[in-house]
Amino acid sequence: MTQFLPPNLLALFAPRDPIPYLPPLEKLPHEKHHNQPYCGIAPYIREFEDPRDAPPPTRAETREERMERKRREKIERRQQEVETELKMWDPHNDPNAQGDAFKTLFVARVNYDTTESKLRREFEVYGPIKRIHMVYSKRSGKPRGYAFIEYEHDRERDKERERRRSRSRDRRRRSRSRDKEERRRSRERSKDKDRDRKRRSSRSRERARRERERKEELRGGGGDMAEPSEAGDAPPDDGPPGELGPDGPDGPEEKGRDRDRERRRSHRSERERRRDRDRDRDRDREHKRGERGSERGRDEARGGGGGQDNGLEGLGNDSRDMYMESEGGDGYLAPENGYLMEAAPE
Fold this sequence. Notes:
Blueprint: H1 7-10, H2 63-88, E1 104-107, H3 116-123, E2 129-136, E3 143-151, H4 154-224, H5 252-305, H6 317-324
Antiparallel strand pairs: 1-3, 2-3
Helix pairs in contact: 4-5
C-alpha cells in the first residue's frame, strides 16, 4: 500500500545513505610519542612584569554603596530645589492666589458630578458666600474632587467648621456606642454559652452519678434478695421496739430502709414474673409438639392404606394448613416437596 502514497510521504520512509568508510588510524592521540617533552612555566617567568611596576588595584563600588550614594544625591538636589523655590515664592504677588485664606474653607472628597450651584446651596445656610472655586485639571478639564469656599466673614467659616467637627464627634460617639453594645452582647452570648455548657456538663455528671447509684443498688439488691425467707418479707431487726433511730421514726435512715425493702420486693416480683413467663412458654411449646406428633401419626396411617404418596393429596385439611404455615420459632418450616421438616432436638 505504500506505493500509492504521494512522493512527499514516500520520502519519509526512504532509507538513509550508508555510512562512509574511513580507514582506521595508526595510533590513537594518547599513544603517540612526542619528541619534545612537556615542561612547566619556569622558562617564562622572566617575561612577566615586575610587581613593583604594576598599578595599584582599584576598588569597585558595591550595589548598596551605589544606592546609598544616589539617595544622598537626590536628597541634596531636592533640598537645593526647595531652597530656591522658597527664595522665589511671594504669596502676596501670586497671580493664582485669590481671596482671603482666613475666610476660606477647604472641601475635599467632592463627587465629580457635583456642580458649583449644589455646593452653594449646601454651604450658604451658614452665611453669605463670597466666592466658590472648584479645581479642574489643566490637561483634561475634569474636576479634581476638591473646592475652596470663601465666606464674607470669619464666623461663618468657623461655624461650618464647628458643625463638621460636631458631626464627626457624633459619628465617632455613635460608632463607639455601637462597638460597646456589640462587645456587651458578645460577652453576654459567651456567658450564655458557658452557662449552657456548664448546665449540660452538670446534667451529664448527674446522669452518670444516678446511673452508678442505680447499678450499685441493683448489685446490692441482688445480694440481699437471697437473705429473706420464702414465708414473706420480714422487716430487718433494727433494735428493740421501744427504741428509735437517731433521727426519729420518720428519719432518713428509716426512709432509706423502706426504700430498700420496696426495691427488693419489686426485684423479687420481677424475677417471679419472668420465671412464670418462661414456664408458660415451655408448656405451650410442649403442647404444640404433642399435637403435631399425633397429627403426623394419623396422616401416616391414612397414607399407608392407599399406597405411597409423596404429595399433599392424601393429607387432611388440618395437615394442609399445617404444611402451609411457617413456624420458625418452633423449628418447623413449610416444605416445598410436601414433607414436614422437624428441627433438631434442643
